[in-house]
Each structure stands twice: as C-alpha cells, then as structure tokens.
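Exercise 7. Predict the joint structure of the components listed below.
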Amino acid sequence: MTRSARGLRQSMCAVALALPFLAGGVVSAKAEATRYPLTIENCGHQVTFDKAPKRVVAIGQTQTEILYALGLGDRLVGTAVWFSPVAKRFEAANAGVKRLADNDPSFEAVVAQEPDLVTAMFEWHVGPNGIVGKRDQFAKLKVPAYVSPSDCVGKDNSGAGDGVRTQMFTMELVYRNIREFGQIFDVADKADTLIAELKAREAKAVAAVAGNGAKDIPVTVWFSSKDVKGDAFLAGKNGVPAYILAKLGARNIITTNEEWPLVGWESVAAANPAVIVVVKMDRRRFPADDIDLKLNFLKTDAVASKLDAVRNNRIVVMDVGATRAGLDTVDGIEALAKGIESFGLAK
Amino acid sequence: MSHAPIAPNWPARIAIALAALLALVTAIALAVTIGEMKIPLSTAFQALGNGVFNLGYPVSAIQQGVIFDYRLSRALLAALCGGTLALSGAILQALLRNPLAEPYILGISAGASTGAVAVMILGFGGTVLTLSGGAFLGAIAALAVVALLATGAGGSSDRVILAGVAGSQLFNAATATIVTTLANAEQARGVMFWLLGNFGGVRWPDVWVATPVALICFGICMLHAKVLDAFAFGADAAASLGVAVARVKIVLFATTAVMTATMVSIVGTVGFVGLVIPHAARFLVGPAHARLLPTCLVIGAIFMILADILSRILVPQQILPIGVVTALFGAPAFALILYRARRAT
Amino acid sequence: MTLAAHDIRWSAARKMIVDGVTLRAEPGRILGLIGPNGSGKSSLLRLLCRLRKVESGVVTLDDRDLATMARRDLARRLAFVEQQASTEVQLSVCDVVKLGRTPHRGALASWTDADEAAVEAALERVDMSERHDQLWHTLSGGERQRVHIARALAQEPRELILDEPTNHLDIQHQLSILALLRRLGVTCILALHDLNLASLFCDEIAVMHEGRVVASGTPSEVLTEDLISRVFGVAVSIRAGASGRRHIEYLIDPSDEGIAR
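Solution:
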C-alpha cells in the first residue's frame, strides 16, 4: 500500500488497525450500525442517504460485482456497462437482475427503474461530463449518485481520453468503495470481511515474490492497439496495472500519466521489458483486442520478437478484469506474481 | 509562371528535380535516425545497408528491426501518404474550383473510415486488401453521397463543400454507430481514434501496396495536367476547350478516391495535408498543373515525414496522432487561405 | 458553308427552352441573336457549340453532324466565350490565353513555337500584348472580355460564339469589343441585348422569342417597329442613323411619369 485513503471522516479505523491479524480471513472487529441520515463525501460532493437504498442501479461491472459480493444482489434493479460475463460466483445473483444495457445506458433507462441510488464505476458516466447523466440531473430527481472513489480520487477526468491519474491508484480506493457501501447499506460487517479477504490475498501474492529477484524488473502491460502492428495502448504509470506492478516490486517501463497512453513499439524496444503482460478481453473493437493476435504479433514482429521478454517467453496473460479497479484487481496481482515466480525471476 | 521560356529549360528542370529528390531523401534520413531509441548515426546507416543490400554489418537485432522495419518503412509510407493526399487535394480543388476542397473536407476520408471499420468490426478479416476494399467502397460511397447532395443543392462549388461537410458528419456518425453498437464497453474508449491517422502499424507490406497505387495514380494525374488547367474558368469553359469533362471528372474523382482509400485503410484519416500543401505548392510554382502536381507530391511527402517525426518525439514515450500534428500546422494555414481568398474577391 | 442548326430542341426541368430553331451562320459574317431575357439565346448558343446535347434536330458544321465530332477537333474549329467567366486561380493574362492552346496539345506535349506564336498573335489582335504578364484579377471587365476573346482566338477557330460579350461593360468598351469582333473577320454568332448595337454591328440578326426564332435576316429587314413591339413589348420609332444603319428610339408613354423628361 503506497498511500492510505484520504478524507475518510466516518472511517472504520478499527478495521485498518486490525489488519495484521486478518491473514487467515478471520474478522474480529465488530462494526458500528449506520445512523441515518448518512452524509458521505463522494468525488467532491456531499451525498446524503435517509435510509439504506433498496432500488440500486449500478453503472459499471465492478460496482455490480462488489454489491453482489456484499450480498446486496436483491437491492439491484438494473445494471449496465458490462465488459465481460459476470463472475461465476455471482451468476445466480445476476440472473434475476435486469441488464439495462451492455454499454452506456440512457439517463431515462436509469431513472425509469425509480432507483434510490445510482452508483457508477466511471466519472465519465456520472459526473461533470457524465454521458449517462450529470450529478445535478440525478439530484433534481432526488436520486443520490455515487461514483467509485477509484475513478476520482487522484484522477483528472476533464480530458477526452480515459483520464489522467495524478496519483497512483491503490487498492485502498476500492476498499474505501467497499467500506462506503458498507455504511450506505448498513452492512459494515460484511464489508470489513470482504476487505480483509482481499487484503489477505494481496499479502500472499506479494509474499510469493518477496525477495530481490522481482525487484525493479521492467514490465509493461499491453491492453490493445488500434492496429495490431501499430502503436499500443500500454498501462500508464499511475493506473490499476501500474499498482499491480508496484505492489510486486516490478517497474513499469511507461512513465506517462495517462491511463492508457498510446506508445510506439520502438519505445517498448528501447526499454526492453523483462516481462510483458498481455491483457485478455472479450471486447472486439480493435483487431488487437484479440489475445491471439497480440501473442502472434509478439512472436512474429521483427522487433518485438527480439525483446528479452519474448525470446525468453516471459509473457503473462492477464484477464481484463484485473486492469479495472474492483474485486478482480487482486486476481491480476496473483496472476503476475505467479508469472514472475514461474519465470524464476523471484528468489 | 508568366513569361515561361518557349523551349523547356532542361538543365534547370533537372536541377530542380534533383534538389527536390535530395530534400526528400534528407527528410527520410532524418526520419530513420530520429526516434525514441537512441541509435548512433553509423549504426543506423549500417542497419540500412543490411536491410537494403544485405551487407551483414554487426547490428543488434532490435536496432536492425527498429531502423529498417519500423522507421524506414514508416518514413516511406508517410511520404507516399503525404504526397498522394496533397495530390488529391490539388485535383479536387481544380475540378471543383474551390480552394477548400480536399478528401477530408469532402467526406471521402470519413467514408473510407466507415468502410474500413465496417470490414474490421463486422469481421471480414484483417488483411490489408480486404480492409482497403472496404475503405475503397466507403470512399466511393461517400463521393457518391456528396455528389448527390451537391447536385441536389444546385451544384455550385460552395454547395459541394456544404455537401462534403454533411457527408462527413453522416459517415462519421455511421462509424461511431458501428463501433459503439458492435463492440462492448471498455476503457481506451475514444471512438474518434478510428478517425485519427497513425503511422505506427506501418510495415513493408503496406509500403508495397501503397507504392504502386501512388505511382499509377500520379501518372494518371500527370496525364491530365493540361486538362486540369482548362478547368480554371469552369466545366463549360473546359468543355469548349475540347476537354471531355464528364470522362475526366469520373477518372480523376476515382483516382483521388483510390489514393485516399488506400491511405485511409493503411494509416487512418489525416486532415489538412490535402488542403494546405496544394496552396503552398501553388505559391511556389504557380497554378499550372504540370508543375503543381509533382510539387505537391514532393512537398506533401516531406511535410508528412516531418509531421510524423514530430508526432513521435513531441511527447516522450507517447505517440501524438499524426492528424493532430498536421492540424496543428494545417489549421492556421487554413485560416490564412480563407483570409487571402476573401481579399482576392 | 459553316455552322447551322436544323430544327433543334432542348428543354430543362420539363420546360421547352429551345423549341425548333433553324438558323445558319454565313462565313466571315456576324450573326446577332436578340430577344428578351429567357427567350433561349444562351441555351441556343450552348447547343451550337455542343456544351449541351440537342434533344432533337441536328447542329451541323460544314454539313457534318456536330455530335459525331471529337470534342478536341471541335475545339480547334469553334471557340466559345462565356458571358462572364471568372476564376479564383491566380492566372496571368498570358496564362489565360495559353489555355486556348489546350485542344492543340497532346497530354505530354511540351510548349512549341507554334503555340507561342498563336498566343502572341491572339493578344496582338485584341490589343492586349502589353498586358501579357498582368494578373487576370487586376483587369477591368472590358479587358477581361478581350483576354477571353484572345483565348478563343488562340484556339485558331473559324467560328466564334459569344454569349453577351458586352454585358456589364460601359458603352466605350461595348463599342470597342464589337468593333474588335468586326475586325477579326471570323464567323461570329453572338447574343446581344442592345438593339442599336445589334443594328450597328451585325450582318444578320435572328430574333428569339419563347425558344423560337421569330424573324431573321439583315438588321433592316428584321428590326421593324411591329416586331419589336411584339417581341419586346416596347414601342419604338425606327429611322436611319448617322452610320446609315437603323437607329431605334424607344418611345415612352407620356403618362409614365418621371422618365419622359
């Protein structure tokens, strides 16, 4: 953890203090019951809840899955913004919930569910330039809107792209998200348990590669490219993948702030990474969304095939879920740790 | 062009051609030696020697690949792309008698993008030829739509530009629709990425496709150089000078569509080059197309190579879309042309 | 024998614009087309030089059907000067005149001495030699029209077709352009607005009304008070002018205030 979450006035400090004892997944802290009306600070706005929400629309797969993990599936009346099929363990919960849209839902589709909470994964869906709706649009209809802290704390979404992180993402932002759901829905105990489990998994993965072998090895995370042979969208220095690398002590070869900067392969060659992480996804917008095309490019391109990582077959396939701020982020840490371990880079 | 010598001055012509060639080669040399990876000049030339003549200098495989497979092919394609786009602009400006005409403004690029995206996302495979085929059909469709709109609106040269703007919007919307409805949600999300040109994916096979297209189209254009001059006072004036207006228009519109479609299918759309370069070239050599067209080809090529170098080095570790760089120079030039056009009337 | 139209018709937007016109130009003479606005003069001229296709009837050049000729051959024989052709291209006077050589040059032919001579001669004939290098945009209306005629002459035509070449020119330039055409000795067919100018400069006159030629012949035969009143709807008094040609005076109804005085 590089940094603790800020501005957490109503925090459950006890949980944080109890951390070192949670490795076995045992929860010892007993959280306080939420007192309504509850006001929390969210992405620079005050959001007030008079009672625990009963009709929730989740815009963003990570938000949906966190709610399922907290056992709140019955409160969901609509979901949207799906990147991949719902995680296996949530299939049953998800079956009964209406999917408003695979992609961006319309404002009307959301409010038609008469929600008492709209929660979004990205500020570009609900925020100052929200394409689903702006906060005051929801406020006018008395619908509280919540955006995951992972997309606004230390992140500037005013530009046109995927946003620019001024500070590195940390899992603490996801934990804050979970913790705040715990408060909002008055399920603080479940939230604490979930956080503890995730932290334990993080700690285990880190321990697996602890040792100097993994330290500072240059790594890059390749998301996709417009054209397989063309410039690549690689993980920027502060995004979720960057956190995964940092957590394991590896060094991201990319040093620009943008979430997914477009980088030429010459720049990759100049940095000559020891490990290349290739993202696997269901999306087929760009040809290089296809993992097979990416792997094939690495093996056949005149330059890429000569890189250390490719010649020594040090390629890690990471599921796209791990590149997003959510429960799956931890899967990414585990996948990369396993890779580094198997390549013999860890001692 | 006034008082042109009666007999062609061959030594002067050859000197000018050599100078242009030298400038082009210099630009390519710059493109090959400048980049994110620091490679000594001598190594760069050894790598070129290895690539072209198989000389077997000891150059590391990565450096060899970067110099020969990345930078050289990219520079050559940038040259072909800039040259043909400028050529297309000059042709369209002459045929439509409008100083603002160019493939981008007339929606030909937008149509080619739609075609390419349709082929890619609807899944007919990702080879250069099918993509080019889609881009070509899209370019022709856009040209047809714009021509139809313009004729319906009266056919004056101003209407052609308006029709082009409308056509561009239509095809851009079609592209956005295809991308947003047929691909699922994800980050790195800008649909506009389709529309911004990029030389990053260029390799030798692309150069082998683009070179004959550029050369043949240039040849066709040069055969029509005198005929294009005759369009100065309009289609009727050209016809009364013995020009088969309908045939010439079809041949040359098709030629510009082929050039634009080929380039869009390889690098995406790049605006402003087609607009600005012909004006710059006219400023240098006057309006006679026999000189204007080759000048456009060379200046367009050099401009695009330099713009591509800038796009690679302006932001460390990051590629600026080439369209951004060309627009950076193109937009002020565009303003200047508008200003001059206003003063001229 | 030169250019002739035989019962030609042409329509636009379902309206008959040229409706069965037959006429013939005599070699070396000037044939004037007069008629009110919209009577079909411009369209007829465009049919005569094949800028539009006749729907029925035939236009012949030396008894050959115009439609069967190659456009380039036609352009070497017959030149057309539009009413007010302009351009945004930065051309000099000699650039414009050089365009007249287009039908004489192959796609890859270079500029020959013959081309240069034709251009210089054309400029000489319209008295614009000293403006050789001046930019087209800086010329006055009358000068532009002269340059257009020079461009047409550079085509070395035997027939010249002009659509209201004196339009928008002041009277001095109108007279000098028409005098120039007379001096050329080329067969000319031209549309004119001004009845007195037509009377002064044309050898023959054809009067168009609603797409048809309603009268043709020498000015003295054609320009009658009755015909002008019928076609143009104005009352005139016609008498012999100082030049021996007919002079047409427009008669104003005294009840029309303001103009008579």
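Discussion. The longest strand of chain C covers residues 3-12.
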